[in-house]
Fold each of these.
Amino acid sequence: MSSNNTRLWTWHVLAGLILVVLLGLHMFGMHLNDLFHLESLNPEGGSPIDWANVAARAQAIGQVVFYILFLGFALYHGLYGLRNILLELNPSEGMAKFISRGILIAGVILFAFGTWAAIAARSTALAAL
Amino acid sequence: MSNENEKLQNFIFRVRRFDPGKDSEPYYEDFVVPCGPGMVVLDGLWYIKEHLDPTLSWRSSCRMGVCGSCGMLLNGKPHLACHTQVRDISKDILLVAPLPNFNIVRDLVPDLAPMLEKHRKLNTRIIREDIEEVLEPTDQYWQDPEDLTAYLQFAYCIKCGCCMAACPTLATDDVYSGPMPLTQGYRYLIDTRDGAFRERAKLLSSEIGPWRCHYAGECSAVCPKGVDPARAIQLMKRELVWDLVKLGKRRHQKPVGLLPKENRATERREGIAEAPEFTIEGATSPAE
């Protein structure tokens, strides 16, 4: 009942703003490549989802950091929104606590898995060199 | 000159009825009401009570949009019955129902107690740090005109509940305070005579604060006094976020008697009428 909603909401808004930037970069790199030809993101030419380009991006530490940040902010923004939707359905106090904790645990697990995936992908890409 | 009766037009008032002691569920009943130009819905309800069905119940008092008693759903939108002309919102059939998002006491009478309890929970009154001054006042709480202007619009609220009835969040969420209490919370949050910003910020940071408002804006669209609760709620969010990131204006209550008394007296400006003489023996002007 007394969670700091001012802090949670402020982070929700900040995460939304940061996502605009990160999602913008993702869109430029992945979907607007024909228009902008960002060679640093797709050094092997061709489609951004060609294995050679995916491996090249995965090797860069900046890309790993980018993926982890993207994942963290997207998870926070989305799961906070989901929590709000569920809490507005008028659950009992016990159920509201369960929802909040369940979403927190799900977020942490998904973030840990995503982070591991980004780091593991880099190791795989480096090993394939 | 045409006869006044010729201007009358029959309207069907389709009124939602419910007597919890008798009915298992609400139902609609039609009444034919002759309405002249300028006639408000409240007049129509009085006509029904006096001529057609004396058991019809609603709440009203001032008949001039001041007391906030007669909020009801008219053709699907919350309005004050005393403030809404029949011909402005209907051509023939007028749907009259109690305000949604409230329990119904009977017919058109909503139970406003939960709304007023939420209003009370947000400490909607001036709270001062100088308790001695509150108990034994020595002077006035001075306030600059711009400080007054910051909250004046929100002080026009008459607690009619129209905004609460229009709020889509409140339709499912009992915990959310709703537009009226939050607007009044903001009105005191920024009042420079108040000294409880920290306590208010902490209270508003809980689930009863403004965070579940999705800015549908319906509260502002239906407010009969132009209070704009949606604006107050967004300003409240901004105030609380700025305070959280330490970029907010430091808010402290202004001391009493901010100006020395000798500096307060000003010459009366031209065109401003003198106050009438006191008619009660022994009364004195507040300025003395």
Amino acid sequence: MPRKLRPWLLSAPALLLVLLFLGLPVLSTLATTFGDPKGPLAQYATFFNSRFRMTVLWRTMEVALITTAVSVVVGFITAWVVAQAPARVKSLLIIAAVFPLLTGVVVRSFAWLVILGKNGILNDFLLWIGVISEPLTMLYTKGSVIVAMIYLFVPLMILTLVGVLEGIPQDLTDAAASLGAKPGAAFRQVVLPLAVPGLIVGSVLVFTGSFTSYATPQLLGGEGQMMMGTFLYQRAMVTFDWVGASTIAAVMVVVTLTTVLIMSKIARRVNPMAG
Amino acid sequence: MTVSLSLDNVTAHYGSTKVLEDLSLHVGEGELVSLLGSSGCGKTTTLRLVAGFLEPTSGSIKLGERDLTRLPAHARNIGLVFQTYALFPHLTVRDNVAFGLKQRGVGAADRRKRADDMIERVGLGHLADRHPANLSGGQRQRVALARALVIEPPLLMFDEPLSNLDAKLRVDMRVEIRRLQQANGTTALYVTHDQEEAFSISDRVAIMNAGKIMQLDTPEVLYSRPANAFVADFVGFENMIPMRAISEAGDAVRAEMAGGATIDLPKEKFTVPAQDFILATRPEGLLVAAEGQGVPTKLGLRTYLGRAYQYQCDTPAGEIKANGPLSQPFESGSSAVLVPQPEQCCLLPTEAA
Amino acid sequence: MKQRIHPLLVAFAVLVFFFLLGPLVIILGSAVSDTSYLTFPPQGLTLRWFSNIFEISAFVRTMKTSFLLAVGGTALSMAIGIPAAYALARFRFQLPAFLGNIYVLPILIPEIVLGFSLMKTVAIGADVPIMLALLLGHALIVLPYCVRVVGASLNSFDFSIEEAAVSLGCPRWKAFFTVVLPNVRAGIIAGFILAFITSLNDVSVSIFLTGPGVSTLPIQLLAHMEQFFDPTIASVSVLLMGVTVAVMAIVERTLGLTFLTK
């Protein structure tokens, strides 16, 4: 095969798959949204003027932001402990974090269905110890969605941050100590600044993941707590409003892509290793 | 401000492995002592114990009157230069150098002035606002040095500070390190695996092996009078000829070597340490001659060294390297005698295996 | 980075791991409970919910579909992803830098948007058979794993070895199969297995491409959960966790699980 073309020929099948079956369909979805006879932006006017749609959008934002914030805090502390653990304990803890991560979303969401249901384990337990006299309604609330989302994404955050913390050379914390920095000061002045890029990357993963999730809000939120993912599905497959569904899709794409682009630019700027 | 460093009977373990055994070491005020040895000999462990990154199993570490043994690393006030430099990548050169001052509560203005002065002293005044990623290896080394010096520590420690630099820079930097250390009169402990580096700048050198100090002395003594076979081998005494004293022959001791050949060693020039001993020399310590008191040999391959010829010699005691004068080349295959040159030979006791 | 840590932080981390593993233990427990409803701790001990899975034909059918899809989609993705990863690593300077980003688009674009768009444009618009559309969709969502994981192995591969083979008279294509591939085997196995589990667990793309006749196990599970609430679901979940365990064992054997923290 011709020398110059070789790299391109090797890349072609994968490129074609992405361009034909991702690029084209997604662009077509986005294009659909501008085809309204009332003007190219009419669909968006409808979207942003609709109280219901905006409620769904804000709810999704809220859930995603809370999930991200909690995951950052919980994930960072846990990752810190994992990173300091002796080698054998550390590999066990990493296994314990990887296992849920590789277990499907449906299975993991189902667990919370069992825990939070009216006749669920938590209610049973609370009734049994006598804290409550009637089962609480925990399922199909924003809270149940958030708890399950946090459950979904904490392992991802832990693993990302363990990698980041392990990547900070021991010499740097040793150097800080030799220069007189107490452990707290070394953490604030050396470890934390060096972990910021990793924190940003982890946050982006969690935010976009929870913002676009489908199975969890479907199972634990139901009709009452619709989020962008479940809303898109409902518009497309229940009411067959494909243009409306496309508009929801477009909003999701814009939100996730801008988040990724802006945050990765910030991560690059604050990354000291890049100089 | 100058104080001495004392390690007394320090033993240390990594897990259950003993890495340092009953080690005692004294570094005098303003003295630079190097710990020299191959990797795993315990030199870096010793430094990390003094720095406070490791705790000894037993023994004590003192800096002047201050007992450091159980003090946390951040309270020890020791300037440490790392092999990797360990510069904080997120801080500028100035902030790196000022880091230690900040921990000591020095005010911002004073901090900046003292950091800038020190950066100037190591010749990096124009780079104070750069980040480490934008510096060359030599410049990073200087920042690391400035950062350790600016806190005016009573003790400076260096952990293989030059191993990541190219050969020419290494020579320049070690001179620089010695200059700054002497200018401040700071006591210093220097860890390296490079013999030339250790010998060139140290007041004294400790040669270490398997968690013990094999010999601690000035470079001059170590180079010419190693105290044991390990040190002799380490400093380049390539030939080790086992011998046994069998009788007195007038003013000399007659010794026998493998193969039954004997040699008379004049008592005024050689001190035989035990009945079984080793004659250790560098190639230039054995002179190839047609005849004389020496080790009989058959000469093998001859190579030209510029100042002498070197011969691979096949002796009853094994393969030996010896030098011969340029004026008198021997043919390969001829027989000759290797005459020990007293001032370049050491007689060492045979070590218990 | 080893430092002493505050016991409170350790306690917190212990709680977190309890939170992470507890729900999965609950599923395990309720799958073996000898009751017709989901409960924990289990009352009695039975495996009948596991045998019950195989009496529900929808589970058996979708299990087969999911497995075929995961194997087929991953194989397809590997077949085109390995050459792409090789080209990226080997011809780093001939190919534009953004090319590597194109392969990760399936991660960047929300999966649910991809699923919807595939349904609209490919399955219905182009009248592509549903099974083929599913296969393409799954190949797409696992492509980033194939390219990235294999790429990571290739980046540490010394291409002068390949040149040595060629200089010794081995044709290039043969050198690729006999010298390059065996040396990045660990990356290929790990990439395959991660892609496999991703495909097996997928919901967001599959949900739009399934319907009467064709469905995948997670979608069938979702549908089942909305109507029934018996331990069968738990036992299917346990089976899926078993697959996860197998996957982890293979990744650990090949690249090591710490690979996942990078």
